[in-house]
Design goal:
This protein is of the alpha+beta class and 55 residues long. The chain has two helices and four strands. It has one domain: Multidrug-efflux Transporter Regulator, Chain: A, Domain 2 (Orthogonal Bundle). Strands 1-2-4-3 form a four-stranded antiparallel beta sheet. It is globular, with a radius of gyration of 11 Å. It starts with a strand and ends with a strand.
């Protein structure tokens, strides 16, 4: 489910949503991040989960 970040109104996506839209697994997305192929994701301050902006 897309979420709105507290305070700034930006719509954010979970790692599962992003991976699904790209047709890859969440593990692959994490590997791309670790290997520097994509920028690191923001983290939810409450639970530490990765969150991505749609742009």
């Amino acid at each position: 489910m897309a979420k709105t970040a507290a305070g700034d109104g930006a719509v954010l996506l979970s790692i599962g949503k992003v991976a699904g839209r790209l047709g890859i697994s969440t593990c692959t997305l994490k590997n791309y991040e670790r290997d520097g192929k994509i920028p690191g994701a923001r983290r939810n301050p409450l639970n530490g989960h990765r969150i991505y902006s749609p742009a």
